[in-house]
Amino acid sequence: MVGFLSIYIYFFFLYIYSLLCIIYNFIYIYIYIYIYIYIYNFIKISTVQYKFAGKEWHDLRKPLNKILTKQMIESCLTTMHQKALKLCERWDSVADSGKVHNLRPELANFSADNVCANVCGYDLNELENNKLDLCATLERTIALWIQLLTQVPSNLSVTYSRYSQKGRNLAKVSRVFTDTCIQMLRDNMKRKETIKDNNEEHTKNFIDVLSELKAKENLSEEETARLATDVFIAGFDTTSVTAATVLLMLAMFPEHQEAVYEEQLKIVGDDPTVIPTWDQLSSMEYLGRVIKETLRLYCPLALFRQLSKDIDLGDYTLPAGCTLYIRLHCLHRNPKFWSHPNEFYPDHFLSEAIANRPKGCYFPFSAGPRGCPGKLYGTIVMKMLLSTLLRKYKFETDLKYKGLKYKYSIQLEVSGGYLCRIKHRNKESENVS
């Protein structure tokens, strides 16, 4: 943290009531970020990241780190690939139709099915059923969040905002996430009883960790389910948004799409039913650069941290207890560190370009002890998905990069949908099969 702050010296100091906020790259939207922390608790969607701290937070985070290991992720490659092929079955119905298709909804279902199966041990199967309409539900939830944050009179008294009509609507809409996690808990309990009766082996998952915490802390089913929502929402939203954005970027920049495809031919071949190995996924260097560049441009809104001790920066001393906000959008587009700051330029992540930048220029998954525990998992899921899709399809779009309009969500998103035409790469082989 000291190294990072010593490089980025542009601060804005702001008191919100008695709370000292120190903001890097100030933009007016930061006035609302402090409310965002509390909205989570007031509407009772989630509690893991913001309500739990200290030992309570560590007791949740440490087991998740142990679950999301290389060995565990590698054991899930077949499941990831099977669900990618299931997505292909959905997109076969729109491929070669000439119609534009919003990629986001099915990608959300794909990502939700994966995180539930691999991390939570639960078969959600949204790709086939789409009962929860996850993409639309989350978009509506976030839209209501923003209204509560920014519109009078809701934002005049955050403490009572959940009792307003918008607050009640938000609680109702977001209830689907809590109910899904409750179902995971109940299913996990039944499955463990069956495993115990049959003396079967069982690989520990995140729902097991929460079930143990529920018993230890005497939590209600509702409280325990809310603890799972961070992993559930983050697991399907960020992965699906990033994957949709990667495909849109490749559709807008076909030279990069073909370069990624050529890399796939060399490493895996052109058959999308072939499962890439861990080593093959790790060697997909061009695809990796495309993913990293997408995350540079379309990153989360900000990092916010409360300092546990004073930090001496020479001209400044940041006091313990203050809140530090870092505007990632500005950091990731700072021309001091990026040769093409506002362009899609995967060569930013060539090894020589990385070596010429100071550390701390790039935080797509946050950093430090509270960094995203799913960084490796999310990267492998995206590589498996994109490898499968790009061996099977070519993506085209009428959208232009400089003409895109954006909206803020959990991360920066394209407004109006991820609209592409999907074409089979080898139509003749598709007809034969």
From TrEMBL:
Q: In the record, what lineage is assigned to the organism producing the protein?
A: Eukaryota, Metazoa, Ecdysozoa, Arthropoda, Hexapoda
The UniProt entry, under PROSITE patterns, shows: CYTOCHROME_P450 (PS00086)
Return the GO cellular component terms, semicolon-separated.
Answer: endoplasmic reticulum membrane
State the compartments where it is located.
Endoplasmic reticulum membrane; Microsome membrane
Matching entries from Pfam families are given as: p450
State the PANTHER family in the record: CYTOCHROME P450 4C3-RELATED, CYTOCHROME P450 FAMILY 4
Coiled-coil spans are none
Q: Which family does it belong to?
A: Belongs to the cytochrome P450 family.
Q: Which GO terms describe its molecular function?
A: heme binding; iron ion binding; monooxygenase activity; oxidoreductase activity, acting on paired donors, with incorporation or reduction of molecular oxygen
* SUPFAM superfamilies per UniProt: Cytochrome P450
Residue intervals passing through the bilayer? 7-39
Regarding the membrane, this protein is recorded as: Peripheral membrane protein
Matches recorded under InterPro entries: Cyt_P450 (IPR001128), Cyt_P450_CS (IPR017972), Cyt_P450_E_grp-I (IPR002401), Cyt_P450_sf (IPR036396), Cytochrome_P450_Monoox (IPR050196)
Cofactors needed by this protein, per the record, are: heme
Which residues are listed for heme binding in this entry? 372
Keyword set, alphabetical order: Endoplasmic reticulum, Heme, Iron, Membrane, Metal-binding, Microsome, Monooxygenase, Oxidoreductase, Transmembrane, Transmembrane helix
The protein's superkingdom reads: Eukaryota
Q: What is this protein called?
A: Uncharacterized protein
